[in-house]
Amino acid sequence: MRKDQTKVKAVLQAGTPGQQLTVMGWVRSKRGNKAVAFIALNDGSTIANLQVVVDVTLFSEELLRQITTGACIRVDGNVVESPGQQQRVELQAARIELLGTADPQAYPLQKKGHSLEFLREIAYLRPRTNTFGAILRLRHAMSYAIHEFFHSKGFYYLHTPLITSSDAEGAGAMFRVTTLPPQNPPTTEDGRVNWAEDFFGKMTSLTVSGQLEGELGALALGEIYTFGPTFRAENSNTPRHLAEFWMIEPEMAFYDIHDNMDLAEEMLKYLTRYALEHCEDDLKFLNDNWDKELLERLHFVLEHEFVRLGYTEAIGILEQANRKWEFPVKWGVDLQSEHERYLVEEHFHKPVILTDYPAEIKAFYMKQNEDGKTVRAMDVLFPKIGEIIGGSERESDYTKLKSKIDALGIPEKDVWWYLDTRRFGTAPHSGFGLGFERLMLFITGMGNIRDVIPFPRTPGHCEF
Amino acid sequence: MRKDQTKVKAVLQAGTPGQQLTVMGWVRSKRGNKAVAFIALNDGSTIANLQVVVDVTLFSEELLRQITTGACIRVDGNVVESPGQQQRVELQAARIELLGTADPQAYPLQKKGHSLEFLREIAYLRPRTNTFGAILRLRHAMSYAIHEFFHSKGFYYLHTPLITSSDAEGAGAMFRVTTLPPQNPPTTEDGRVNWAEDFFGKMTSLTVSGQLEGELGALALGEIYTFGPTFRAENSNTPRHLAEFWMIEPEMAFYDIHDNMDLAEEMLKYLTRYALEHCEDDLKFLNDNWDKELLERLHFVLEHEFVRLGYTEAIGILEQANRKWEFPVKWGVDLQSEHERYLVEEHFHKPVILTDYPAEIKAFYMKQNEDGKTVRAMDVLFPKIGEIIGGSERESDYTKLKSKIDALGIPEKDVWWYLDTRRFGTAPHSGFGLGFERLMLFITGMGNIRDVIPFPRTPGHCEF
């Protein structure tokens, strides 16, 4: 901040009566009478507002008239003890400078209690609300905690590429990236689009995962993690899907599936504890206003050892459950949210890590088990969210990996370099992916993924 | 790392003779005689190798034959004092497990001293070399230091969007993002491509800057920074340009241009000091092998107060310099690298911050000075690199900003939300952009930007 500025958070936490200081921020509300006005001032440093007390006889009517919700002001004043119950201290204004007005007829954030749907339409202004201030501070805290966690363990942050010419990961539909003219692109002799004339000399897309490149890093540097944007061009209009989202993908040489599970559990508990310890105010606000079970759920994750069991065993439990499933259960099916939540919330009453899924429903790079049917996959299942992490031990055997790739018809040109890591100094290794916005749904208790990212991209929506 | 593993860095720093431990890593070289073999083992944790001493009589010939450069092994052994000068301790092998071979006929990283050009062609393997190990560890260190710096000052990390429907920033050519069929896209009645049928219902591109969205964040949360990928579709085949690169863009409410300069100088010194304090080995390696003036240059930046002067004054100095410029100098021209480096390296012998550039050569959002000719821009100029940071105080006055936007013909549909921030609670504010790979060129001393990012994207190149 500016040298002459004190943040509202610092005033509220450490301001002492008699102190003279300067605050700057946005007016959340103004009330009062003919003698005194009370301005609730927020500068984004904390969810709480600073109460600025104004002796109206000292200021011009014109100035006071313009101090409306949304206006930006600078206040020089004295810290005084607050007679109210709401706060320890308040600021007695000595000088007020109006930095920016906000016409009450035009400013959309007048009253409290706007719907989340309405706020999505004005996503460019919603960071000025209590709810989105809290969410964005939590988003920062979780980002920082992720870097801190991995850095403290000797992992390196690896920037994997966003634009890719490979679609081998197969995790979903991709966006094409191009500079060819959209109308009449150059064509080859047989009349097809001539990608050789595109910017990169071939067809390129936005990545769906940094994992394969992450493995290259791990097989050189030991332990790495990615934390970057990822894209899916699926026409999914659900509260759980975004076309552009952020992923964390650690990859670790020498880890087997058990080391992998240990790391995932440790990380999720670290992040949950970090939020509880560093973002108490914001969590309390979200708990009180949006999800009364939020704090309870965070403690639930923190205080239980995660159950670890095989997919086959889980199917047995689900088959014996006295329950009508929307999606019927039998060995071989992919689990749905209703199954995952049943295991966590009703059967075990603990977070669950499921392992050893059928090979058929998992990706080509997962380590094949001896049974010939299952792979060393792991999914971490959470209350309310369902799957929050998906990962596996990776297939490190060249021959097995090559057979799988051939069986699936994945073109060699897309994966020769990935295969090469199994030819040159291969090692057992593992990794997983955490969708950052899924984590944010869990940490904030919000129900719609569009509300935990600043500017959501979904089918038909790319504003601001 | 695995619970039973010790990292090479830890052995070299803290291993004590008599200790039994397990290391895992890749063979950098093997030499020896009929009685004893010496394996140089690296696991990515540090640039130094651990010397593994092998009594060849204890192991099978077949095993020893397969321990070649690039192979991956696990060694259980005892730490012993090293009789050699190169290292304090070494590891006497008791058990060796071969995890992955690397056929000497096929493995491309046999001998030392490959050219950087060759290594670019095998970018998927180059993290296994000393040079790229050092660069990637430094890249991690700088990323972490950036988060640490901003977090410690109360900034929030804001994830601005990558896919955008606006091209208002105007910083460069853009990549189109689409899911329309490339061959015969749907058309409107007048025969043009019908973008309404594209994924987002309009034409979309990859962002060239997160600044405008960053300002939205700053005008709600106070101080924010972005750190994410950015794209330019320019056909620039130079050692300084990438099509995909990472940018750091802080935006701060209430900062004027002087606060902005203070922050930029403090940040660059913080990062430089962090590298010197945390990455001594890697910097020494790069200094000795690639750029003998690297360490000197880092200290140069750390130990000098940055000179601050106006563009107009700088033009005067350049005009009076007894020098033939490739690009002639007069008031109004954009400075070239030769001019920037002259000011830093020959005239002032200090880093330089130039301010108050002609409005004509700078972007629309910069604060207009009273003189009607210049804007409150700032560029930070460094030795060897030239411009490392570009920033400005932002125009916070609605009327002035609107006139400029109209004069430049920027469509209102692209910027109405940006303009709105000047209608609703505007505030003086500033920000800047730091190209992360430019920073990495400075910190590593490397000469080509393709060598400071794991997987470079340039015209015609999108591999791995």
Descriptive account of the structure:
The structure is a homodimer of 464-residue chains. With 464 residues, chain A is of the alpha+beta class. Chain A has two domains: 8-107, OB fold (Dihydrolipoamide Acetyltransferase, E2P); 126-173 and 208-451, 2-Layer Sandwich (BirA Bifunctional Protein, domain 2). In chain A, 32% of the residues lie in helices and 24% in strands. In chain A, α4 crosses α6, α4 (130-152) crosses α7 (280-289) and α6 crosses α8 (294-303). The mean pLDDT of chain A is 96. At the A-B interface, β1, α4, β6, β7 and β8 of A face β1, α4, β6, β7 and β8 of B. β8 of chain A pairs antiparallel with β8 (176-178) of chain B.
Keywords, please?
464 residues; Asn-tRNA-ligase (chains A, B); globular; EC 6.1.1.22 (chains A, B); homodimer; 2 domains; eight-stranded mixed beta sheet; BirA Bifunctional Protein, domain 2; five-stranded mixed beta barrel; alpha+beta; 13 helices; 32% helix; OB fold (Dihydrolipoamide Acetyltransferase, E2P)
> Element order, helices and strands of chain A?
HEEEHEEHHEEEEHEEHHHEHHEEEHHEH
Task: Count up the domains of chain A.
Answer: 2
Contiguous helical run count of chain A: 13
CATH architecture of the largest domain in chain A: 2-Layer Sandwich
For the record, what is the CATH homologous superfamily label of the largest domain in chain A? Answer: Bira Bifunctional Protein, Domain 2
How would you sum up the major sheet of chain A?
8 strands, mixed
Number of strands of chain A: 16
Name the CATH class of the largest domain in chain A. Alpha Beta
Unreliable spans of chain A are none
Helical percentage of chain A: 25-40%
Strand content of chain A: 15-25%
Strand order of the largest sheet of chain A: 6-10-11-16-15-14-13-12
Structural class of chain A: alpha+beta
Oligomerization state of this entry? Answer: homodimer
The most extensive interface, with participating residues per chain, is: A-B, 111 and 111 residues
CATH topology of the largest domain in chain A: BirA Bifunctional Protein, domain 2
